[in-house]
């Protein structure tokens, strides 16, 4: 393997540094913005809350935003890594498979037609939408003798994305939504969320992240090929089912709190494989940490690119993601090499 | 009786299967009927007879205003944009030899819409006549980038499509960013730009839109028709095409140019309307077989029909709201795409 970090101590050290950077990013995300806030004030707002305006901004706007970015980034990256493993397709990711757009459509449509409201309903709908779309694209992409080829699945995912986002737009426009809301359900954004939003999906997503770490060992076995894994006594169906549940919780949850953010699930797994190789026991934690860092950094950047206006973070990740996409596609759609 | 009709001219002569002529005539008739229906439906219903009377110039003057200034331009634009997108898609599928591509799937429409948005935001003082040029420039920029990225000792359809899809996403994101960061953009302009990106032919007018698009249609469509025969021979493979005396690369470049220009010009007026360029050529091939001489005109009529109907539903279904027509082309087109995947499962 040609990865950067080879020995376990190196990898552990890398992970510790990663977690430290993640924390720095969370604090930076709280500190930097239209109203710059002192580091001390941030600490004070949690330890000695005094109800001042600055403390209120931190606790109701900045902190939820940072936490949501961190967990959504982590969730999308881990979901991407698992999807790439199961489908053996280096381009698999929640956004390209249309899962994000599908989950967003379910939330948008249910709130418009069935009066679904409330954050827990959004989370549930996100899960249902993600599960439905994932299944749909998987089946569509597997049609034919040659099975799940990168081309077919990408085309199926791209067409489902176009399908669901067009429908979402139709629903949003007939419902007379504001431009900000429309944009949010289209490209994804972490701005203007509150702590309740974070709390609505975070427990499921946290559980799914832990679940993915448990699955890591079995994913390693599965990566040897279905036949080998079965021969070694693995019930591959259960592993795949477990991974599917984890993916749906991660992708659906992140859409319900941050909208359909693209490309995190492609960029991070590839960076991670470059860093630590293909052992899922290392890649999944690295994905979680690096995914959080990427989305936090992109979000901080999105505040300054057109200061004082903000750009939705989904726009930033889409632009960042394309070089990776082009690189992978030029490799002929093969993984790991 | 022969199955072919031969038309001989001094410079150009060609054979057309009877079936193609019958299909073209039938589609033309359907188009006309749907156009009359489109003019009639709306917040004020006008009966088909009254529409025909107005079109002949002997109608009620109160209807004339609705018909000629509000509904007619929109119907005409639907026909123009729909047919241009369809022909662009037919050419592209022939060039790439992949039945699952279209200008919107591989990012050419995305480039065109970026070009248009740059024009709307930064060149609003320039005459709108130049807007298609900006869009076509965007479409060519995108096509060139996709080609360069996909080139690796040659072009494979697979790489081209994959990279196109990635580029489409990126170009959309860049468009959003331009809309959002242009410091002088009021929300109304942003909403307009956003609707534009889904594809809408809302509020088009004779002078502004129809006249802007017309020259491109008039120039590009005949070229597409004339060059269609080169696609037939290219379908046999580059070696065969070259050995029967076709200058493959020169013709292919020209065909690509026409396809990209058609898509770019259509996007300038209609926005990124999805899936027409994908669907129409397939329906056309089902109707008249694979020869491009028939596929191109039949695609054009089907494309116009699809957009007319989509726009009708978009306009009428949720009165008084006017939904972008692109929403409905996608609602029809995505299931169609699924069907295509299913049908090509053995290839």
From TrEMBL, chain A:
GO BP annotation list: siderophore-iron import into cell
Compartments (UniProt record): Cell membrane
CDD domains: TM_ABC_iron-siderophores_like (cd06550)
Membrane topology per record: Multi-pass membrane protein
Transmembrane segments: 12-35, 66-83, 95-115, 121-141, 153-175, 195-216, 237-268, 280-298, 310-329
Classification via Pfam families: FecCD
Gene3D superfamilies: ABC transporter involved in vitamin B12 uptake, BtuC
Listed InterPro entries: ABC_BtuC-like, ABC_transptr_permease_BtuC
GO molecular function: transmembrane transporter activity
Keywords, ordered alphabetically: Cell membrane, Membrane, Transmembrane, Transmembrane helix, Transport
One term under GO cellular component: plasma membrane
PANTHER family named in the record: FERRIC ENTEROBACTIN TRANSPORT SYSTEM PERMEASE PROTEIN, SIDEROPHORE TRANSPORT SYSTEM PERMEASE PROTEIN YFIZ-RELATED
The family this protein is said to belong to: Belongs to the binding-protein-dependent transport system permease family. FecCD subfamily.
Protein's UniProt name: Iron ABC transporter permease
Lineage: Bacteria, Bacillati, Bacillota, Bacilli, Bacillales
From TrEMBL, chain B:
Primary localisation category: membrane
GO MF entries: transmembrane transporter activity
An individual GO BP term: siderophore-iron import into cell
Database matches in CDD domains: TM_ABC_iron-siderophores_like
GO CC term (a single one): plasma membrane
InterPro entries: ABC_BtuC-like, ABC_transptr_permease_BtuC
Compartment(s) where it occurs, according to its Swiss-Prot or TrEMBL record: Cell membrane
Residue ranges of the TM segments: 21-52, 72-92, 104-124, 130-151, 158-178, 184-203, 210-228, 254-279, 291-317, 323-342
Top-level taxonomic group: Bacteria
Membrane topology qualifier: Multi-pass membrane protein
Keywords: Cell membrane, Membrane, Transmembrane, Transmembrane helix, Transport
Alphabetical list of PANTHER family matching this protein: FERRIC ENTEROBACTIN TRANSPORT SYSTEM PERMEASE PROTEIN, FERRIC ENTEROBACTIN TRANSPORT SYSTEM PERMEASE PROTEIN FEPG
Family to which this protein belongs: Belongs to the binding-protein-dependent transport system permease family. FecCD subfamily.
Name used for this protein in its record: Iron ABC transporter permease
Species name: Cohnella xylanilytica
